[in-house]
Write a structure and sequence with these properties.
With 438 residues, the protein is α/β, with parallel strands linked by helices. The chain has 17 helices and 20 strands. α6 runs parallel beside α7 and α13 crosses α17. It binds guanine (GUN) and zinc ion. One of its GO terms (cellular component) is cytosol.
């Protein structure tokens, strides 16, 4: 049997978009010998090779990926591109890590040339790991967002990003003001939101580094531009939670601070959500806000264990994220590995199908991007990756004995990393191909 694509295909899995409540099992479709036809950056047909091959025009370029698995490109719902150069920095916890490593590193983004160079490396690294969409924090400097969007746009990647807003409780050299933060964010979103595949996210770093005036200004922008994204951090670390309560004493909970300023709504994404209570989880659900679960970061910084069982129980929209540089890997496969173990500790068996769903169609659904990304359904943007079950000796040995799709995907999630990603395509274009001899 053959596989092709470009017009092309291979033995392919395709996650179709579905309602958030739809289980991963219902969302998945698997083709043992598939053909995916891509034209002008979109998927136009997908089906069994034997049924579709006859429809291919002569002269169509066919890429044969037999023996590999095509899946939608991964979606990382929370990552900091300026922290690329400080990944794997040791610290006793979140707040000293921010003070001693993060802020000095982010200062360097006052230089747009440095920002452009880091953005380029960062996107290369995402491509190596099979991540085709990410929700990206820039720094407080408008030029950092400009540099990121310019690089992403040049590659025709679908990225969501924003300039960080912070006007207090951080070094002077990283501060904006309520007014300048709002003005610069508005300029950037008018320039980039909807330019090509770029999307903007209003990005107040977290409540402790924004004054009430800044969160208020951010809420006004959110009302004025209802289709932009919002991203921030919440309830990551117990010291941080205590600090947020001290700074906003009138609010019921840390999450309620954001709610008070109109920052909880569909297309808002909150990193971590570890120390939420049940009322918070239900509020996230009712608001249509997304929790970005960042297991490698939470373990690395000792922040705590995300309660996956409680998140599921409350129906809180949840997706996976690396949170580099707090996270210790750019790979969504490594992130699945850690998420599985953390979910186990909360009493939930997180299946591989569910993890792949969370990293593709589930994330897209929660972000309102289900018609564009996270799926191989006809009509979607052609962002997809090729996974190689023989990428490493151990993967080859384990996957040779896999008896189901679940076992195959589980092996990728537990044993895989960037080496498992044979190729990454965005909008139908090959952006990364791993040399065969690695
Ligand atoms: N909280 C506020 N800023 C940050 C950050 O850069 N990383 C993490 N992990 N948490 C934060
Ligand atoms: Zn973060």
């Amino acid at each position: 049997a053959t596989a092709a694509f470009g017009a092309a295909a291979s033995r392919a899995t395709a996650s179709s978009a579905g309602a958030w409540t739809e289980t991963a099992n219902e969302a998945v479709a698997y083709l043992d010998d598939g053909l995916m036809i891509v034209d002008q950056g979109r998927i136009v047909r997908i089906g069994d090779y034997a049924a579709l091959a006859a429809e291919l025009d002569a002269g169509v370029h066919l890429t044969d990926w037999r023996g590999r698995l095509i899946v939608p490109g991964f979606i990382d719902t929370h990552i900091h591109y300026p922290q690329t150069d400080m990944i794997a920095s040791p610290a006793p916890g979140l707040l000293p890590w921010l003070e001693n490593y993060t802020f000095p590193t982010e200062r360097r983004f006052e230089n747009p040339e440095y920002a452009a160079e880091v953005a380029s490396f960062f996107l290369d690294e995402l491509q190596r790991c099979g991540t085709t969409t990410a929700l990206v924090y820039c720094t407080v400097h408008p030029g950092s967002a400009q540099a990121f969007f310019a690089e992403s746009h040049a590659r025709n990647l679908r990225m969501v990003a924003g300039k960080v807003m912070m006007d207090r409780n951080c070094p002077e050299f990283l501060r904006d003001t309520a007014e300048s933060g709002a003005r610069d964010s508005e300029e950037l979103l008018r320039r980039w939101h909807g330019t090509g595949r770029q999307l903007y996210a209003l990005t107040p770093r977290f409540a402790p580094t924004s004054s009430a005036a800044q969160l208020g200004a951010c809420g006004e922008l959110a009302r004025a531009y209802p289709d932009v994204f919002i991203q921030s951090h919440v309830a990551e670390n117990r010291d941080e939670v205590r600090w947020a309560h001290e700074l906003f004493p009138g609010r019921r909970s840390y999450l309620d601070i954001y709610d008070h300023y109109g920052l909880l709504r569909p297309r808002s994404v909150y990193g971590h959500c570890i120390w939420l209570d049940e009322a918070d989880r239900l509020r996230m659900r009712d608001a249509g806000a997304l929790a970005a679960h960042c297991p490698t970061s939470n373990q690395f910084l000792g922040s705590g264990l995300f309660d996956y069982a409680a998140a599921r129980g409350a129906g809180m929209p949840t997706a996976l994220a690396t949170d580099v540089g707090g996270g210790s890997s750019f790979s969504m496969l490594q992130t699945m590995n850690e998420a599985h173990k953390v979910a186990r500790l909360s009493g939930h068996h997180l299946s591989a199908l569910e993890m792949f769903y969370l990293a593709t169609a589930g994330a897209a659904q929660a972000l309102g991007l289900q018609d564009s990304i996270g799926t191989l359904a006809a009509g979607a943007e052609a962002d997809f990756i090729v996974l190689d079950p023989r990428a490493t000796a151990l993967l080859a040995r384990r996957t040779a004995g896999a008896n189901s799709l679940e076992e195959l995907l589980f092996a990728f999630a537990m044993l895989g990393d960037d080496r498992a990603v044979a190729a990454t395509y965005a909008a139908g274009r090959l952006l990364h191909r791993r040399p065969d001899n690695c």
